[in-house]
Amino acid sequence: MERGLMPDTKMYKEMIGAYIQVGMMEKAMEIYCSIKESWCKPDRLTFIILIRNLEKVGDAEMVEALKEECFQFVDYPDKFIQEVEQRYKHAKRR
């Protein structure tokens, strides 16, 4: 193991957010894949950030894939997905 900081879920989320802010959704998804390959796991906020931003760019196929992956990483995934959909619909109307 090399010396230095071990990445954690928070660091990965920060990187995802930074790539999204500069319009690099593909790179954000690469970081998401890195989370899954590491000892970390994506958390609820990671999924919210990715799902909402993929919906904004119109990538419905990837949104559905992420919703399916929630079942591997999130407690009560059905309820979580409903909450995300409700919040996004509410925010979209504003």
Automatic annotation (TrEMBL):
The keyword Repeat applies. Keywords: Repeat. Coiled coil: none annotated. InterPro entries: PPR_rpt, THA8-like, TPR-like_helical_dom_sf. PPR repeats lie at residues 8-42. The keyword Membrane does not apply. Pfam families: PPR_2. Signal peptide: none annotated. It comes from the Eukaryota. This is Pentatricopeptide repeat-containing protein. It comes from Stylosanthes scabra.
